[in-house]
Design brief:
Layout lengths: L1 E4 L2 H13 L4 E11 L2 E8 L4 E6 L7 E4 L17
Parallel strand pairs: 1-5, 2-5
Antiparallel strand pairs: 2-3, 3-4
Length: 83
């Protein structure tokens, strides 16, 4: 899986990259979870009034853009290794 930040530059090349691999890009992901051996992405619809679960189908690679602020930095595993 390839993840990109939801920014202007990645908004230009990430969809093109996904299309090049004959795949789709799940945009503005705010959460994800593993279910039955696959990844389920959560994204908001209707200006945040509804959360939708999106599950990839078929073979990878998979592409997603992560919404800014979706994950807190103190929950990242890499911070545990810092002095």
């Amino acid at each position: 899986m390839s993840c990109f930040p939801t920014r202007t530059r990645s908004g230009i090349f990430a969809p093109k990259l996904a299309t090049r691999f004959n795949q789709v890009l799940v945009s503005d992901v705010i959460d994800f979870r593993a279910t039955d051996g696959s990844v389920v992405m959560v994204r908001q619809l209707f200006q945040g009034k509804l959360n939708a679960d999106v599950k990839f189908g078929g073979e990878g690679p998979y592409f997603a853009s992560i919404q800014a602020g979706a994950f807190r930095a103190e929950n990242a595993g890499w911070r545990q290794n810092l002095p």
